[in-house]
Amino acid sequence: MPDLQTLRYGLRGSVTKWFERPAVSLLIRLKFTPDTATIVGLLIALVAAYFASEGEFLIGGILVLIGSAFDLLDGGIARATGKVSKRGALMDSVFDRVSEIALLVGLGMYFTSGTDASQTAVLLTFVAVGGSLMVSYVRARAEGLGAKGTAGFLTRPERVAITVVGLILGYPMVVLWILGVGTPISAAWRFVDAWRTIDPE
Question: Which CATH code of 3.30.430.20, 1.20.120.1760, 2.60.40.420, 1.10.340.30 fits the domain covering 4-197?
């Protein structure tokens, strides 16, 4: 998609200027470490998953937004305090995946019983989990081979935004349809782009 990555970087710059820097300064004054912020983000995501499984989508969506904010800020805290580390990067990446899986599983659980039970929703949940993981995996593997691996759409920030908006507005099925259909396509797009940039041996 033309200029999509440029738009992402532009948006990230605005977020950094108007939200991340002030919030990082506040958390540092409150004695937050990067790992603390990462763990808090994960715990909030797990609570959000519980509320989603109970059909409390508004609360779940708000918690996802708060949890994703901590996920954004842990790296900023690390850079501001000089505590950037490979262990911290590993924890951040793994906990991001756990948070995303937990929320999708929570949504899937909601649709397994009750008046809103839906086999389609459960199937979309499985596909969305796999697709979301593959989007991240393709990038990691491509970068390990010297390619960028950033092509495509529905990266984690976009998936979080769709989830937050969909849950707050009370449309969890729309979230699952977008993620269930879009993430496999995005992973495939990213794979093809990385494939083309890697020199054949």
Answer: 1.20.120.1760
| Residue with the two structure tokens 């937004």 | 65
Euclidean distance between CA atoms 70 and 47, whole angstroms: 14
Question: Of 35, 71, 92, 96, which is the active-site residue?
Answer: 96
Q: Report pTM.
A: 0.87
| Alpha carbon of residue 103 to chain centroid | 10
pLDDT score recorded for residue 75: 87
- The rounded distance, in Å, linking the Cα atoms of 77 and 90 is 16
DSSP labels, 66-120: HHHHHHHHHHHHHHHHT---HHHHHHHHHHHHHHHHHHHHHHHHHTTSSTT--HH
- The pair of structure tokens assigned to 90 is 């590993």
Written as six digits, the tokens of 84 are 């950037």
Reply yes or no on whether 92 is catalytic.
no
Give residue-wise pLDDT tens across range 141-186.
Answer: 999 998 888 888 888 888 999 999 999 999 999 999 999 999 999 9
State the DSSP code for 22: H
